[in-house]
Give the backbone structure.
Amino acid sequence: MDSTTKTNQQKWDELVRLEVPCSRPYEDLTPEIAQTKFNRDNILGDLKGKNVLCLASGGGQQSIGFAMLGAQVTVVDFSEEQLKKDKLEADKYCLDITIVQADMRDLSQFEDQTFDVVYQPYSINYIPEVKSVFQHVSRILKPGGIYHLMFHNPFVHGSWKDSCWGSQWDTVDLWHGIGYPLTQAYKDGLPIKVADQTWNFEDTQGKVVRTSAPQEFKHTLSTILNTLTENKMSLLKFEEYTGDPNKTSIPGTWDHYASVAAPWLFLWARKIQ
Amino acid sequence: MTQNKHYWSSIAEKYDSTVSETGDQSQQLIINPIVEEFLGDLKGKVILDAGCGNGYWSRRMAKTAERVVGVDFTSELIEHAKRRGVPNNVQFLLGNLARTTFLDNSFDTVLLNMVVLDLEDLSFVIHEIGRVTKDNGYVVVSTTHPCFENPPHTQSVRDAQGNKVGRTISHYFQTGLVEDQSNRYQHYHHTVSEYLNVFAENHLFVEKISEPNGAEILQNGAVDHFPYFLIMKLKKQV
């Protein structure tokens, strides 16, 4: 494992111990809620009995949701702390899931054409290139199987002052009446420089935690889409995160930023038959 | 549609002299080489140049293609296309891309060169393009990059000397008509997801996509790291 990945791995173990919000299992998850969160419009089809790989997806969120929907779930993550959350949650609901600690770039332990669905939440931006991941995903997907990927919108990646959550974000106005500044080059694999390199969030007791950020890398739209095609996966659907339309948007706030600049992108691609 | 048609009629003369037989500077240096690559070998192919303007791409493709049909909804532009010369294997037609007269599966390749940004509603035209393209045929689309378009969507940030040092992003989700009264310029803003989803819904799947860095290619001195255009090769797969 390279030194950046090693550092990110240790960072994620630490973030989990600090109770970062994206590693907290959902409270009161039900099959209905899981369907809304992970299989909206039934885009992945009926998941009962299907083989689902939750890729770089530890933290007890997605794996539990898919297990509730009747899927045979395998969850892979490089962080042991993340995977402990999956184990705890699976035990809590008495669900049977397979837990594997591995780097997302090396899925060689899985046979060809094993999975109906590979579901990858925000994680591909922690590695500098996507090719090795897509090669493995394509190989282990069954023909007609679906790969879901969430990634950072490359057009705006690195444009905010740091990666704060919620109210913590709203302390400095970057809008300046004209727009949020895009200052980092549009280049695939670019290491993201974040102004003060911290993540700020509230833990479960409401205490504000400030900690250094994991290293992220920019992946351009063309690299993502061309690498999918090269690996025999064709794009079915594409979404840009538009924030919460019910929230009032004061320029400079996170909600305003998300309503004009789409921080995250989501895609669904099908392995060619 | 009427508004856009009026706009194109009003700029037809100026457009024809700017574009001429080669395209403007951006087209020559940035767009054309990629469109050429995405079109591939046109030998023996039947081509639709959808939104052909003054027809310079139709004439260019006709040098190798079997047959080219150029369609545009602006009569002034079709007149310019005819005035500039109609090779034996080229036909220029005045028509609406949302409702053409062509049969299903008529064309091996369809070119939409800098056209989709002039469509208020993508769905009708892309549905029609999907219909007239043969199975396993290609559609090549070029447009301004939706993420880095003109104001209000992005603006250049300049230093004290007036050099471009970066950009801002704003109003990305505000789709529809964009007008610049002073430059008498207009187009329709669509998001990346609008484009990609309307293609996929019409069985047109991304085969290759290019986001050329305009500042690097034009060497215009702008420290402007962003792609100016979005160019896509789509394959029809039913």
About this structure: The mean pLDDT of chain A is 90.
